[in-house]
Design goal:
This protein has 440 residues and is α/β, with parallel strands linked by helices. It has two domains: 3-90 and 242-434, Zn peptidases (Aminopeptidase, 3-Layer(aba) Sandwich), CATH 3.40.630.10; 95-236, Glucose Oxidase, domain 1, CATH 3.50.30. The protein has helices at 3-16, 32-36, 41-53, 61-76, 157-173, 213-224, 277-296, 318-327, 354-364, 400-403, 416-434; strands at residues 80-93, 97-103, 107-109, 111-113, 120-130, 144-147, 178-182, 208-211, 230-235, 238-252, 257-267, 303-310, 331-337, 345-351, 370-373, 390-395. The strands form two sheets. The protein has an eight-stranded mixed beta sheet. An eight-stranded mixed beta sheet has the order 3-2-9-5-6-7-8-4, sandwiched between helices. The chain is elongated, with a radius of gyration of 23 Å. The two termini are 42 Å apart. InterPro entries: CPQ (IPR039866), Peptidase_M28 (IPR007484). Pfam families: Peptidase_M28. Its main location: endoplasmic reticulum. Residues 1-16 form the signal peptide.
C-alpha cells in the first residue's frame, strides 16, 4: 500500500467515527506526525529487535538482551525512572518435534508443540476427530485426539483458544494418548500455529501439538470417508523450573499530577518461533515510539505517562501480574495496550467501569479513531481489579492471525507506515488522557 493509500484508508476510519471526531480536545494536541517527520526510526528499531535479537521467550538469553536493549532505548530517548522490574517466569524448552502418518499412507507432517506440553519419545495411535470440547468422550480412549475446530475469522479465536488451553486435559480424562489441534488461523500455507495450553492440576498430562489447517482437514476427510489414520507423535519438550526475567519501565513524569499515571504497555516477549514481529514486537515499538514523540513535544503532560514492556505474556501473563502486585495500588487513570499487531489502526477496544465511561468516552473522541466495548489487553488485565479503564489498540485484524504464533511472524510482514500510524495513535491518546480534566 502506498503512503497516499495508507492515509486515505486511515482517513476513512476517521470519517467513520462520525460525531466522535467532532468532540473538543481538553488541551491542544501536539502534531505528533510532524514531530515524527520522515523518520523511519520505529521500523529500524523493530528491525533490530527482530533481526538482531530474534525470538525471545521470557526465560531465554534473547529476552534478557531485548530487555537491556529496550531500557537503553528509553534512556536514549530521555525517559526518566527507567528500571527493570524482576518477574519470575517458568522455563519451557520446545525441543524437537516430529509427526508421522503411518496409515493409510506414510508421510511426515509439519507440527509445533503447544507451549507447556510434556514431551514424548513417541506415541502411536489411531486418530479420533472432534470439533469441540463437548464432543470428547469415551470414544477417545487410546487414541490421538484431533480438535478440528474450524477457525475462519478473527472472532473465532476466543473459542479456539479455549480448546487449545483445555483440550489436552479434557482428552486425557477419557484416556487419550495425545492431542493435536487444527491451527488457529485465518489463512494457512501448511503452517502450524503454536500457543499455550493449561494442564488441570492432578490430571494426567498428555503431549499436545498444533498441525496445519490443511493437514487437519485432510485427516478429517479421511475419517469421514471411513479411513482411520494412524499417527506417531514425538516431542522433545522439557520443563525446567523457574528463572528471572524483567519488565522494562520508563516514564515521563507529570507536571501537575505526577502521582496519577497513564500506562502505555505491550509485551516484549514472543514465542520461540518466527521473530515475534507482529506479536508483539510491533506493540513494543509502538510504545517506545509514542514515548519518544511525547518527549519530543517538549511539554510535560499534567499526569505521568509510564511505558511498560511486559515479560512473559505468552506463557502466563507473569509480567502483568507482577506489575499489578507491585504498582497496582498507584493511581492509574487508564492503561493502554498494543498487542494486536502492527497493522493500520482501526479502533480502540474498551473495557472500563460503567461509572467512568462518561468521562472517558468524549476523550476517546478526540483521537480520530472510533471506540467499541471489548478487550483491553492481557498484560493490563490484572489492573481491572483496581477499576482502571483498560484500552486496547485494535488495528485492522484481517491478516493478524495469518502469522500469529508461527515461523512466519517476521519483519517483512510489517508495513512501516502502518507501524508508525499505530505509534501516532498511542501518542495522541496518551497525551489526551494525561492532560484530561479531573476524573469524575
Amino acid at each position: 500500500m502506498t503512503k497516499k493509500q495508507t492515509l486515505a484508508c486511515f482517513s476513512s476510519w476517521v470519517l467513520a467515527a462520525g460525531l466522535w471526531a467532532q468532540a473538543p480536545s481538553p488541551t491542544p494536541i501536539p502534531d505528533f506526525a510532524a514531530l515524527a517527520g520522515s523518520s523511519n526510526l520505529a521500523y529500524e528499531r523493530l528491525s533490530y529487535l527482530c533481526d538482531r535479537i530474534g525470538p525471545r521467550p521470557a526465560w531465554s538469553p534473547a529476552y534478557a538482551r531485548a530487555a537491556s536493549w529496550a531500557a537503553e532505548i528509553m534512556k536514549q530517548d530521555g525517559l526518566e525512572n527507567v528500571r527493570l522490574q524482576p518477574v519470575e517466569v517458568p522455563v519451557w524448552e520446545r525441543g524437537s518435534a516430529r509427526l508421522l502418518m503411518l496409515q493409510p499412507t506414510q508421510r511426515e507432517l509439519p507440527v509445533l508443540a503447544l507451549g507447556g506440553s510434556v514431551g514424548t519419545p513417541g506415541v502411536e495411535a489411531p486418530v479420533v476427530v472432534v470439533r469441540s470440547l463437548d464432543e470428547v468422550g469415551p470414544q477417545v480412549q487410546g487414541a490421538i485426539v484431533l480438535y478440528a475446530f474450524p477457525m475462519s475469522k478473527p472472532q473465532d479465536y476466543g473459542a479456539g483458544s479455549r480448546i487449545r488451553s483445555q483440550g489436552a486435559s479434557r482428552a486425557a480424562a477419557f484416556g487419550a494418548k495425545a492431542m493435536l489441534l487444527r491451527s488457529l488461523a485465518t489463512a494457512s500455507l501448511a503452517t502450524p500455529h503454536t500457543g499455550m495450553l493449561h494442564y488441570e492440576e492432578g490430571k494426567p498430562q498428555i503431549p499436545a501439538a498444533a498441525i496445519s489447517q490443511e493437514d487437519a482437514d485432510w485427516i478429517a476427510r479421511l475419517v469421514s470417508s471411513g479411513v482411520i489414520p494412524v499417527l506417531r507423535l514425538e516431542l522433545g519438550c522439557k520443563t525446567g523450573g523457574k528463572t528471572l526475567a524483567h519488565n522494562v519501565i520508563g516514564e515521563i513524569p507529570g507536571e501537575k499530577r505526577p502521582e496519577e499515571i497513564v500506562l502505555l504497555g505491550a509485551h516484549l516477549d514472543s514465542w520461540d518461533v518466527g521473530q515475534g514481529a507482529h506479536d508483539d514486537g510491533a506493540g513494543s515499538v509502538h510504545v517506545l515510539e509514542a514515548m519518544r514523540l511525547l518527549k519530543l513535544a517538549g511539554v510535560r503532560p499534567s499526569r505521568t505517562v509510564r511505558a511498560v514492556l511486559f515479560a512473559n505474556e505468552e506463557f502466563g501473563i507473569d509480567g502483568g501480574k507482577a506489575y499489578a502486585r507491585e504498582f497496582g495500588a498507584q493511581k492509574h487513570i487508564a492503561a493502554i495496550e498494543s498487542d494486536m499487531g502492527g497493522f493500520l489502526p482501526a479502533a480502540w477496544s474498551i473495557n472500563a467501569p460503567p461509572q467512568l465511561m462518561g468521562w472517558l468516552w468524549p476523550l476517546l473522541a478526540t483521537t480520530s479513531l472510533s471506540a467499541r466495548p471489548g478487550w483491553g489487553g492481557a498484560d493490563i488485565s490484572p489492573l481491572a481489579s483496581q477499576s482502571v479503564p483498560l484500552i486496547g489498540l485494535a488495528p485492522d485484524p484481517t491478516h493478524y492471525f495469518d502469522y500469529h504464533h508461527t515461523n512466519a511472524d517476521t519483519l517483512d510482514k510489517v508495513n512501516p507506515e502502518h507501524l508508525q500510524a499505530g505509534a501516532l495513535a498511542l501518542a495522541r491518546l496518551a497525551w489526551v488522557l494525561a492532560n484530561a480534566p479531573e476524573v469524575k
